[in-house]
Amino acid sequence: MTLQQILEEVESGRLSAAEAEVLLKKESHETKGYDEMGYAKIDTDREKRTGFAEVIYCAGKAPEHLVNIFARIYHENGEVFGTRATKEQYEMILERFPETVFDPVSHILKIEKLEKEYIGRVAVCTAGTADIAVAEEAAQTAEYFGTRVDRVYDVGVSGMHRLFSRLDVIQEANCVVAVAGMEGALASVMGGLVRRPVIAVPTSVGYGANFGGLSALLTMINSCANGIAVVNIDNGFGAGYLATQINRLAEGK
Amino acid sequence: MTLQQILEEVESGRLSAAEAEVLLKKESHETKGYDEMGYAKIDTDREKRTGFAEVIYCAGKAPEHLVNIFARIYHENGEVFGTRATKEQYEMILERFPETVFDPVSHILKIEKLEKEYIGRVAVCTAGTADIAVAEEAAQTAEYFGTRVDRVYDVGVSGMHRLFSRLDVIQEANCVVAVAGMEGALASVMGGLVRRPVIAVPTSVGYGANFGGLSALLTMINSCANGIAVVNIDNGFGAGYLATQINRLAEGK
Amino acid sequence: MTLQQILEEVESGRLSAAEAEVLLKKESHETKGYDEMGYAKIDTDREKRTGFAEVIYCAGKAPEHLVNIFARIYHENGEVFGTRATKEQYEMILERFPETVFDPVSHILKIEKLEKEYIGRVAVCTAGTADIAVAEEAAQTAEYFGTRVDRVYDVGVSGMHRLFSRLDVIQEANCVVAVAGMEGALASVMGGLVRRPVIAVPTSVGYGANFGGLSALLTMINSCANGIAVVNIDNGFGAGYLATQINRLAEGK
Amino acid sequence: MTLQQILEEVESGRLSAAEAEVLLKKESHETKGYDEMGYAKIDTDREKRTGFAEVIYCAGKAPEHLVNIFARIYHENGEVFGTRATKEQYEMILERFPETVFDPVSHILKIEKLEKEYIGRVAVCTAGTADIAVAEEAAQTAEYFGTRVDRVYDVGVSGMHRLFSRLDVIQEANCVVAVAGMEGALASVMGGLVRRPVIAVPTSVGYGANFGGLSALLTMINSCANGIAVVNIDNGFGAGYLATQINRLAEGK
Amino acid sequence: MTLQQILEEVESGRLSAAEAEVLLKKESHETKGYDEMGYAKIDTDREKRTGFAEVIYCAGKAPEHLVNIFARIYHENGEVFGTRATKEQYEMILERFPETVFDPVSHILKIEKLEKEYIGRVAVCTAGTADIAVAEEAAQTAEYFGTRVDRVYDVGVSGMHRLFSRLDVIQEANCVVAVAGMEGALASVMGGLVRRPVIAVPTSVGYGANFGGLSALLTMINSCANGIAVVNIDNGFGAGYLATQINRLAEGK
Amino acid sequence: MTLQQILEEVESGRLSAAEAEVLLKKESHETKGYDEMGYAKIDTDREKRTGFAEVIYCAGKAPEHLVNIFARIYHENGEVFGTRATKEQYEMILERFPETVFDPVSHILKIEKLEKEYIGRVAVCTAGTADIAVAEEAAQTAEYFGTRVDRVYDVGVSGMHRLFSRLDVIQEANCVVAVAGMEGALASVMGGLVRRPVIAVPTSVGYGANFGGLSALLTMINSCANGIAVVNIDNGFGAGYLATQINRLAEGK
Amino acid sequence: MTLQQILEEVESGRLSAAEAEVLLKKESHETKGYDEMGYAKIDTDREKRTGFAEVIYCAGKAPEHLVNIFARIYHENGEVFGTRATKEQYEMILERFPETVFDPVSHILKIEKLEKEYIGRVAVCTAGTADIAVAEEAAQTAEYFGTRVDRVYDVGVSGMHRLFSRLDVIQEANCVVAVAGMEGALASVMGGLVRRPVIAVPTSVGYGANFGGLSALLTMINSCANGIAVVNIDNGFGAGYLATQINRLAEGK
Amino acid sequence: MTLQQILEEVESGRLSAAEAEVLLKKESHETKGYDEMGYAKIDTDREKRTGFAEVIYCAGKAPEHLVNIFARIYHENGEVFGTRATKEQYEMILERFPETVFDPVSHILKIEKLEKEYIGRVAVCTAGTADIAVAEEAAQTAEYFGTRVDRVYDVGVSGMHRLFSRLDVIQEANCVVAVAGMEGALASVMGGLVRRPVIAVPTSVGYGANFGGLSALLTMINSCANGIAVVNIDNGFGAGYLATQINRLAEGK
């Protein structure tokens, strides 16, 4: 029996919740380390292995798949976190889970435990206003995983005094996330000013020869400064995840 | 007077070493934060600002420039570290500094302080044998900056049991450096197995459609696993630097 | 007279079906090996030459062209198979052929003979849930041509234990189809684990620097493992076709 | 003790060959499935797992590493096969193993068992004369692994009658290897003429906008014909390996 | 006074048609060789210089600009020819010029003189059905400029017998236009079979790694056959123009 | 208090305009050189530093952000200039500032001071009619910053006499802006004819292998003529800005 | 017996020349249309089919292969033409055929019949001096095939008056070959000035972002002028071949 | 008679210098505006038209061509300037013109008039030491054409204090040349700090994903700062030329 079949059995009353739980726990978790849902295999072993519970990349997921995976993880962990969600997906989920929260800027969809404790300190910076969507994905991801975040937005290199006026916040962080589109020079400038790792996130913001973010990606990969860790174009989630890993190490977790 | 002029004055006996020191210290370090050499400005403020003393990228440097910069940093710090050096550059330096050491695999040229203390633990891994040159650049960079390094070589995904047999070493490190050419899949596999950051170094090893390392770079940037920090193709130095930053944080430095 | 003219003659009653059949059979099949339809030349010789009857690539076909080609092949073979169909195309065909079946996941449109016999065994695997659309195109193509298929979905390298738990199924197949987007590392991992050919299908799933599937394509083309046969991005049909060729050889057909 | 240490012990007489064998067999093969050589891990489990013994990619290997790996595999299997070797590497190996054979066209270096049995039939074809180097790498790889090979050279599409005059040989093969540079159209033409898989090998032969083989690679990946399995640019070895896998299946191995 | 101002004067009755004609002829044609319209300069000297009257590239033209340019050329030449027109543009023009004809396949919009004489012979061929839109742009362009055209559609290399059955038509033409997407191998095959120039038109038909027609373009540019003249992706107009130039030369015009 | 909070205080009557002005002037301008708005930092120091007041890149700005930034700059400078605005953005701004002007060709949104004085002379030229949108962005930007502009449109190289007939205007300008898509040859031709700098603006006008303007960009960057300054694809604003800098120098400003 | 075997038989005296001729003629020419040489298949049917005898692309040919193919074609046709030859290849051929001529500029190696008749007129033009090597390949190819050629060198667009002073020669030709590197604008300018086809040859001359000729290729493919036929980068031979085809048509051949 | 023939006549004494001068002046300069040398057409009209005498791009020029062109321009102008010269070319020229000067850093070869007057002020800056070769080409070009130059080297963004300490020099210049490889961020930072145009020169300095300077080129083209004029990769000459044009305008020339 797949997870879906078990859940349908419970829904129809032919299986009690308690029996289902036993079935699910025994088969999947202990033996295989994942839940078989046919179209997906929820990696229940992930938190133990990597320190991070599985999250959902919502883009392109079929509605019923999304709801089931959302529910499955929520029931497992008591909270759930999805990225790149649409307003339509949010509304569909909302019907079943009214406590769901959606942020239209970062496109994050989540139910989060209350009174979470935040540790350390990470600075999330952007070159321009249009980079904020990606920056918020990074910041909220880090926060979901327990990281304290400082936001420093619109400090691009065309007006360097804006960056210098916030340098104290940036230099005190355990690591810095630098989010920039166009030519992406922010990461190089940061790298020369701080002693901690700079996680560089190229964005697709810009036009013409930016080629969907390739320009910023190449800038960051070729940086003359050191201590620059590059992630994929627009990959705020990856940056928030990596920042959390580094922040945890710094805080002895 | 530029640094070069001052040094020539000392060489010719028209200026004492002590006077020169005063001149250099006062003018450059305290006021400007760098030494003006005309063709170069040695960033003497760097260690204070970033925690790392300046190193030398030897490739393409004119012989006399290289020697002068090498000497300048050595006198400043009591040790000096150069990457991408040629055998000819080594032999030229050797005449003036017989204590210089050159590693033909990593092309590192250095004079290193004795009895350095190493902290923490970083695992440097390669997919194949041909990736070792880049891996050694990473490993020796990290060691120069005081990081303890474990080497795990030739554990590419075409024979996964080799990787699994060394998983204990990899999972205990504060961070992992994954060096791979061809399709560069090693980083993704690592990312799914460890809780600490994976620094991915694409190499230009391979042929055909690897396009000088672009293939491995794209693989690593697009990794489905999280916690992957990518640096430039063949950039072992950058990886060793970033690994040191993370290792220091983990060790409370 | 072209095929279209003949069909119109039959429609208007000026030509009997039997007469038309004679005309069509004699002219096209025996002499030329194709049916001339003006805008298309149906390759009636294909099955004899390659072992595969002609199928329809529906994308971008004008409505009347699609219906006529669909009808022509159906009448020739008693079954017909179209890929990349839209819901609108399906509804138009449905009016004339109510037995038509459409799968919204794979976008396959077909009328298939009943009680088909399946031979051998091919494993169709995906890295993630979003790759299933392409995988189903591969699986259903192979099944249409008489291949028995095992589906192994969501076994990407970020959680390798999921793949290992299904390794028995994968290793027993005559060949494996590995469907993966993002960095496409699944194919390399497979190649190191099985003795049979791995057909690698890069998908356009992903974002940022995946460049519409180019990243996964380069990964698979540069694989450090051997026995990897690469097809075009999102080309599930090509993979199912190639898998059928190999499966037939293995079964002595 | 690493393999190297064990061998040095034997060389110096402090360890008998028999004892060494026991050590090596027990530790490496049974427990780990590979031989640890420090700079390399010989995958001794590979033949059992994939049906193919490990071969050596000679390009860029340090001399002493190459000799040791060559010796190690030779002693394990009684034969050994290296690709992309230089004349210098050959001469170095020749000193220790006078039975070594080197082919300057394909750059293959090998010691092969006598009276090998060949099964099935694979056709290796080229578009032009300049593609023969890659074709020979494919052909000799397939022969090394026990495949009977027919060579059909210089049958490019600018003079199609040359191809048609050899079509009988091509159509009878279990699979066809099509090696072509420039625009690489040979693979598409083949795909429309045979019922068995076509393994397409783009070569870097050509000039101008061929971009080192990218042109032929894109042609083959986008082929309008089906049953085309593409490997990397100039990857004759990969094609011979894949052809062997398919040929074995066809012959019931 | 610009053309627009002159026309408005005529419209309002302040200027007679005859006077306007004098103004326009004298100023523009004889002195400058073009009509100044502010947003455009109609090249009235073009036919004398190149043998071809100016045509209109409709894509992206503002409605009023398009109508005015259309009218201007029509009045000059008694006929007018526009490419890449939309249905909306057609309907707007139709209001003013009810004799306008629009072909939804090629997106050509025109008013053509009756009883045009056609000379010579050009064969326009396509690899597949989806290439017909581009082929019709080529064919109708050539016809507009007085070239006799034979259409040979759907003769791609996956079923070569279709091409061979029409070889007589192709070999008798003064030149051949080969329109193909996907891998674009048709041009190379043609080049080896005919003695006259082959104008190769890559199309954006295909998917995956065809990169909007780049794959076919590279194939055609790198063709191993000679006598291949390549034009831009989807540039049917350019092919029809070039074919007309060659056809005229062959017919002594 | 952020700027937004201050403005809200004024709006609600809890703060007088005069007090607000003091607050804003003191805190932001004198100390930091920018206004903190949370999602943006208005660079109030820019005009003093660069000679150009800050302008607004409207594309992708959230409605409320755009209105607030628009208002802020208007109040600072008495005029305001936005590029890449949509009609929707215009209508929203219009509600609050009825004196706003929108040009649907260049997509410029502005309130401009009356009776501005224009100095010097810049020629803005286009190759075709479709390049006018970008050219107007350049021309109106230059005019906003006080530059006198001559427009010379539709003088592409396919009819060189059109360009030569306007050469006097072009040669008298302090600098020339050459706007061209497709192959972008206009810039090279200009460079050989004038003694003043040519600012080359590649546009995305064209199709097929123009790759969104990359073709024209490469042409201009590789120009065989000298004195060519290239800006980003479709970057009319950047060209107008640069032309103004050069024009001011020529006029002694 | 292959051609090689037959020739060896003749060499050793076991076969008379006359007998050999019969063998070769009968077997190869009449039945197959090519000569089988093992490593090559000389296309003896080509002249009949395409109007052009086979020529030799010398680059990368093994010495003995080159000599044999050279001899074979020379004996067949009484003349022979090779492109991209090296000085070493020339010297080797010279030993056997002292009448061989080598041009170090174009790298053409040939033995040509005396008192050849030239027809028509083709203009071969270059943008700069560095493009002459490619232009000479084009010019001498056309001459070898009987075309009269006018050379017009160094008429690039940075000094347009040089081109205009030779316009009479260019406009009288049956077709124009425009050879240009860097930005390749020459072809577009030509296209607007002549009524005959322009064959555009991009060259790899230039540096920086010319990417080995890609810049010039894109310029020519995207030309705003019509009647532009593009061949591969540096492909002088292809241009001379195409020019000959067009010239023959114009001269009624 | 060509220039070469005339010069040979003078050399052999059959023509006096005075007669030759008349011939050359009358024919070439006044009527055609260039000197016909067969392989080159010296643009004698250029200085009048553009304000800059013709210079020589030495790379790839045949020895005798280079000497003749060098001599021709020297005799015309009394000075001559060549870029990208090799040491071998220098030595050859030196034999004939012992006053020739060669700079091995910038590869400039020249004979320059004494006591040249320099006007205005241009700042030439580099990010690193390895960019100096390109910077010197720019600086010496500008100086040759009469511009006063300040050199500011090694002020890259990884140590921003070095740049700030020289800001006075940079801000006082009529324009700034920013030379940078790797990620090329220097230009963006400059753009935000100065009121005059910044000429950005990407260099090929760097490794890995810098793709021969493409990375720096894209950075500079996509700069978020304004007033950035980009020239080709490593094109110091173009930058020096453009800087001179702007400097002359600023100085009223």
What do these coordinates show?
With 253 residues, chain A is an alpha/beta fold. Chain A has helices spanning 3-11, 17-32, 46-50, 63-77, 87-96, 132-144, 160-164, 167-172, 186-191, 214-221, 236-250; strands at 35-36, 41-42, 56-57, 80-83, 101-103, 108-111, 119-126, 147-152, 175-180, 198-202, 228-230. The first copy, chain A, has a 5-stranded parallel beta sheet. The first copy, chain A, has a 4-stranded mixed beta sheet with strand order 3-4-6-5, sandwiched between helices. In chain A, helix 1 (3-11) packs antiparallel against helix 2 and helix 6 crosses helix 11. The longest helix of chain A is centred in the N-terminal third of the chain and has 16 residues, at 17-32. Chain A starts with a helix and ends with a helix. The mean pLDDT of chain A is 90. Chains in contact: A-B, A-C, A-F, A-H, B-C, B-D, B-H, C-D, C-E, D-E, D-G, E-F, E-G, F-G, F-H, G-H. The A-B interface holds A 49-52, 174-175, 192-197, 199, 217, 221-223, 226-233, 237-238, 241-242, 245-246, 249-250, 252 and B 49-52, 174-175, 192-197, 199, 217, 221-223, 226-233, 237-238, 241-242, 245-246, 249-250, 252.
